[in-house]
Specification:
The structure holds two protein chains of two kinds.
Chain A: H1 3-18, H2 31-41, H3 45-56, H4 73-87, H5 91-115, H6 117-128, H7 135-172, H8 175-200, H9 206-219, H10 223-248
Helix pairs in contact in A: 1-2, 1-4, 1-7, 2-3, 2-4, 3-4, 3-5, 4-5, 4-7, 5-8, 6-7
Chain B: H1 16-28, H2 41-49, H3 52-55, H4 60-70, H5 82-96, H6 103-141, H7 149-186, H8 189-212, E1 220-223, E2 226-229, H9 230-238, H10 242-256, H11 261-278
Antiparallel strand pairs in B: 1-2
Helix pairs in contact in B: 1-2, 5-6, 5-7, 6-7, 6-8
The chains are: A mainly alpha, B mainly alpha.
């Protein structure tokens, strides 16, 4: 990996978690997307997207709510993909390697959340002086410069030096140790799926997890056709159940509103 | 106020272009300075910084008052909560036109709606829409020996959806006002959407387990000259992929027992080391 490529990886990381226009939060932060970008930087876009995609499985349902961040999926996606491409790792091993990286990356998030409070007082100051047109500096410019400093530098260093050590690391891994990484990598996606299930696996929807499972096991359907079937099933189910509700119990319409 | 057709609404003070610009600021920079003290408070001030000049063109003190009350603590789901921004923009506009709206009322609307809308938004957006779309797009990426289209489709669709939903929701809040938003939250429509989305999400997750969780037993029992493989001879006979399903349900159960994801990652690593080194898991 050249220094330029490492710096580009660092910049990708900054854009992914800096939440800048059109990128970040919902798109580049996801390993599927930043893996593709890392692949483009390293000259193998397809491998980037595939490895990034499998790393992303762990973070499928990771929710950042109320200012918490359970794992830094962007750092895991970028470094995991970079090491996989440079070291020729398969996606399962790359996934197992990237999960600890993602945990380490949360430091960056908490550093930002804490330090960014300073800029709010800069904005308070602008308001007291009646300089509203300067608020964008406190909201975008200064915090983003700060974010760039704490993201680009560590990610660049980790990409550059990590990649040069990855080969000796791979050489060290053989037989049973490689098996350990693959077993871990095989189980990790279950966490991403289980976290998603904590939001949706309730009430009448529970049985449909097993419908989807059995359908996929015995038909071998891909997820796109399965998704279409799932959408149609959901529409039919909601139509049927609301039809009978309307006919039977109009006065009791408020009964399942406590969920929120 | 000369040309009414350029205003966002009849007899209003805010030009349509300024309102759109304000919304773009909200949707684009909500977390560029995310912090523990005010969370998204500052972006609301950034949002009003392009509107306040139209509301109080010649009263600097009133401009300051407005900005002071709008930089307070605020935190919501970006797309679901954009209707709040529309609503308070409309209220500040009415207030500037002389309607008697107490400051506390505007602050109360913000604080009382941000909780429910954050809950609904995070559940539907981050809990259902993103996982389903990601699951399908990751699967597309691995097709035919690998391609880049899944990643590109995901990025384009999710950004387009975020901006479209946010804008529609924002204009709904601006035009319809607080009563309409409260009505919508209390009506059954939202529950139907949530129910349908959960059903679709559960089915897709079932498919994801089959395709992407990999747990297999490597134990072989040698007896009377023949070798009995526990995976192919037993688990696959019960049902293929039964171990991945069991693993997922176990982790789900642990999450319900309030295990943190960090603790579960630790458990997976321990199981991986023990199972992988001993050859029980392959």
């Amino acid at each position: 990996m050249s220094i330029l490529q490492a710096v580009l990886c660092g910049i990708t990381y900054w854009l992914a978690i800096g939440n800048l226009p059109f990128v970040g939060l919902w798109s580049l932060q996801r390993p599927l997307v930043c893996g593709l970008v890392t692949g483009v930087i390293l000259g193998d876009p397809v491998a980037g997207a595939v490895v990034g995609g499998s790393i992303n499985l762990v973070y499928l349902g990771f929710i950042s709510a109320g200012g918490s961040m359970p794992a830094d999926m962007a750092l895991a996606g970028i470094l995991g993909t970079a090491y996989a491409i440079v070291g020729g790792l398969d996606s399962g091993t790359a996934l197992a390697l990237s999960v600890p990286i993602g945990l380490l990356g949360t430091i960056v998030w908490y550093l930002r959340m804490t330090f960014d409070s300073v800029f709010v007082h800069v904005a308070d100051n602008y308001i007291e002086k009646g300089e509203h047109h300067k608020i964008w500096r406190a909201n975008v410019l200064y915090p983003q410069i700060f974010a760039a400093v704490i993201t680009v530098i560590p990610c660049t260093l980790a990409a550059y030096f990590g990649a040069s050590y990855i080969q000796s690391f791979i050489d060290f891994m053989s037989g049973p140790i490689l098996n350990v990484f693959q077993v871990i990598g095989g189980m990790m996606p279950a966490l991403g799926i289980a976290i998603t299930l904590t939001y949706i696996f309730k009430g009448e929807a529970t049985v449909f997890l097993f419908v989807g499972f059995v359908l996929a096991v015995y038909t071998g359907l891909g997820l796109l056709p399965l998704g279409v079937i799932a959408l149609l099933t959901a529409i039919v189910y909601v139509q049927l159940s609301s039809g009978s509700e309307d006919a039977a119990a109009t006065p009791a319409a408020g009964e399942d509103e406590e969920e929120f | 106020m000369a040309d009414n057709s350029k205003m966002a609404r009849e007899g209003g003070l805010i030009p349509k272009s300024a309102l759109t610009k304000a919304w773009l600021i909200w949707e684009t920079f909500p977390q560029t300075c995310y912090n523990y003290e005010r969370m998204m408070g500052q972006v609301v001030a950034h949002f009003f910084s392009v509107l306040v000049g139209f509301l109080y063109p010649d009263d600097p003190e009133k401009r300051k008052d407005l900005m002071r009350r709008e930089i307070e603590f605020f935190n919501v789901h970006i797309e679901a909560g954009s209707c709040i921004l529309g609503m308070i923009a409309a209220m500040e506009e009415e207030k500037a036109q002389g309607v008697d709206i107490p400051n506390e009322f505007i602050t109360n609307i913000k604080t009382s709606l941000m909780g429910p809308l954050a809950g609904v938004g995070d559940t539907i957006w981050q809990g259902v829409v993103i996982p389903i779309l990601l699951g399908i797009c990751i699967d597309l990426t691995s097709m035919g020996g690998g391609n880049i289209w899944g990643a590109i489709i995901y990025a384009v669709v999710i950004c387009a959806a975020a901006y479209a939903i946010s804008y529609a929701n924002f204009m709904f809040g601006y035009n319809a006002g607080s009563n309409a938003v409260l009505d919508f939250l209390e009506k059954g429509t939202l529950n139907k959407i949530l129910k349908g989305a959960s059903i679709m999400g559960c089915m897709v997750m079932g498919g994801l387990i089959v395709n992407y969780v990999k747990v297999a037993c490597g134990v072989e029992i040698a007896s009377a000259g023949s070798v009995f493989n526990l995976q192919t001879g037993f688990f696959d006979m019960v049902m293929p992929r039964i171990l991945p399903l069991a693993t997922t349900m176990l982790i789900y159960w642990l999450l319900k027992k309030r295990w943190s994801s960090l603790k579960i990652i630790g458990l997976i690593i321990v199981i991986g080391i023990v199972g992988g080194l001993s050859g029980i898991l392959v």
